[in-house]
Design goal:
Elements (H helix, E strand, L loop, with lengths): L1 H41 L4 E4 H5 L7 H11 L3 H9 L7 H12 L2 H13 L4 H17 L8 E5 L7 E4 L2 E5 L15 H6 L5 H14 L8 H18 L4 H5 L3 H9 L1 H10 L8 H4 L20 H16 L4 H6 L3 H8 L4
Parallel strand pairs: 1-2, 2-4
Antiparallel strand pairs: 3-4
Helix pairs in contact: 7-9, 9-10, 10-15, 10-17, 15-17
Length: 342
C-alpha cells in the first residue's frame, strides 16, 4: 500500500503541472489576442474629406487641376457623384465641364451649400463618432470591412448616406433639419433631417449593406426581423438614446412603449406577417408622416421598433451570440423562439 501511494504522488504532481501549463498558455494566448485586437483598434484610421467645399470652389481656372487631384485620390468618384447624386448626364469632357461649372454656380445649389457651411463648420466631432462606432463594430465582427474614408458632400437632396469603393459618402444637406433650404420640404422630413440622426443613419446603412446579401426581404416578417437585428446590433455599438436609434422623437418612443400590445395586435389583425405586398407595409420601414394602418399619432418606421422588441426578447430567451444572431436567416424560428407576447 505504501509503495502505491509513493508512485501515485509523482504522477499526480505531473498531471497538476501539465494542467497548470495548459491553463497558463490558454490565458496568455487569450490575453495576447485581446491585446492585439485593442492595439489594432487603436490603429484604425478613417480619413475624412470636405468634398463639398472643394466642389463649390471650382471655376474655369482651377477645374482641370482639381479634377486631376480628385481622380488621383478617389478614382471614379467624381463621375459617380455627378451621375448618381446630381443626376448629371454628359458624354464628353467639354460637356462635363460645362455642366459642373453651371451646377456649382446655380442659385439653388449655392443656397444648399451656404446652409451646409453655416451649420457644419467643423465636422471633426462627427468623424470621431463614426470612427468610434466602427471600432465597436470591429470588436464584434473583427473581420468586417470598414470605410477607408468619409466623404462629406452636398448631395442636393439625393442621398443622405451612400458608399463608393469603400468610401462612405455623407450628404450633409440631409442633416440640416429646420435649416434645410428647400421651403417645399414636408414638415415631418425637416424633423427627420436632424444632425442627431447622422451616425445612426450611417451605421444602419453600413451594417445593412454588410448583411443584406445573406437575407431575403421577400415578405413583411423577414424585413421585420432583419431590421430588428440591425437595431439590436446598433444598440450594442452606439452610445445613443434609444429614440435616436429608431430615428424617433422621445414622444414617439413613449407612444410605442405605451401602446406596444395594441401595435402587435394590429399587425396580426392586418394579416401582415406573411405579406409580400411591400406597398401595403412600406411605411413600417420607411420615412412617412406615420405608419399606415396605425393611428396617426404613430411614428413611421414602426417596424424597426417592433423588430427590435422581438430580437431583444429572442436574445433574452436564448443562449446565442451576436454573431449567431446575425447569421441566422430562419425568421420564423427567431420569431417563435423569441416568445414575444406583449
Amino acid at each position: 500500500m505504501g509503495k502505491n501511494k509513493s508512485t501515485q504522488r509523482p504522477r499526480l504532481l505531473i498531471i497538476i503541472f501539465i494542467i497548470g501549463i495548459f491553463v497558463y498558455i490558454t490565458i496568455n494566448t487569450q490575453y495576447n489576442w485581446v491585446s492585439e485586437l485593442i492595439f489594432d483598434q487603436e490603429k484604425i484610421e478613417i480619413k475624412s474629406e470636405r468634398f463639398d467645399l472643394g466642389l463649390f470652389l471650382l471655376d474655369s481656372s482651377n477645374y482641370e487641376k482639381k479634377l486631376l487631384e480628385w481622380e488621383e485620390e478617389n478614382k471614379g468618384f467624381l463621375n459617380y457623384y455627378l451621375q448618381n447624386h446630381i443626376g448629371m448626364y454628359y458624354d464628353r469632357d467639354s460637356m462635363k465641364k460645362s455642366h459642373v461649372l453651371s451646377f456649382v454656380s446655380h442659385p439653388d445649389a449655392l443656397l444648399y451649400q451656404k446652409s451646409i457651411q453655416e451649420n457644419f463648420v467643423d465636422l471633426d466631432v462627427y468623424t470621431e463618432k463614426i470612427k468610434e462606432a466602427f471600432v465597436e463594430y470591429l470588436s464584434i465582427f473583427p473581420d468586417s470591412t470598414i470605410p477607408k474614408k468619409i466623404i462629406y458632400s452636398n448631395s442636393f437632396n439625393s442621398y443622405g448616406v451612400d458608399v463608393y469603393n469603400q468610401n462612405l459618402i455623407v450628404g450633409l444637406d440631409f442633416y440640416l433639419g429646420e435649416f434645410h433650404p428647400d421651403s417645399n420640404i414636408w414638415e415631418y422630413l425637416k424633423l427627420r433631417y436632424h444632425e442627431k440622426y447622422m451616425i445612426a443613419d450611417i451605421m444602419e446603412y453600413w451594417i445593412t449593406s454588410s448583411f443584406i446579401h445573406e437575407n431575403s426581404m421577400e415578405r413583411f416578417q423577414n424585413e421585420l426581423i432583419f431590421k430588428g437585428k440591425i437595431i439590436y446590433l446598433m444598440d450594442l455599438i452606439l452610445e445613443e438614446d434609444k429614440h435616436v436609434l429608431f430615428r424617433f422623437s422621445e414622444k414617439d418612443l413613449e407612444w410605442c412603449n405605451i401602446h406596444e400590445s395594441n401595435i402587435w395586435n394590429e399587425i396580426i389583425s392586418l394579416d401582415l406577417m406573411y405579406s409580400k405586398d411591400y406597398n401595403s407595409y412600406a411605411t413600417f420601414f420607411s420615412d412617412a408622416p406615420f405608419t399606415k394602418g396605425m393611428p396617426k399619432e404613430s411614428p413611421a418606421r414602426l417596424g424597426y421598433w417592433v423588430g427590435y422588441k422581438i430580437i431583444d426578447s429572442y436574445m433574452s430567451n436564448n443562449n446565442v451570440s451576436t454573431q449567431e444572431l446575425m447569421s441566422n436567416t430562419n425568421y420564423q424560428d427567431i420569431l417563435l423562439k423569441s416568445k414575444y407576447r406583449p
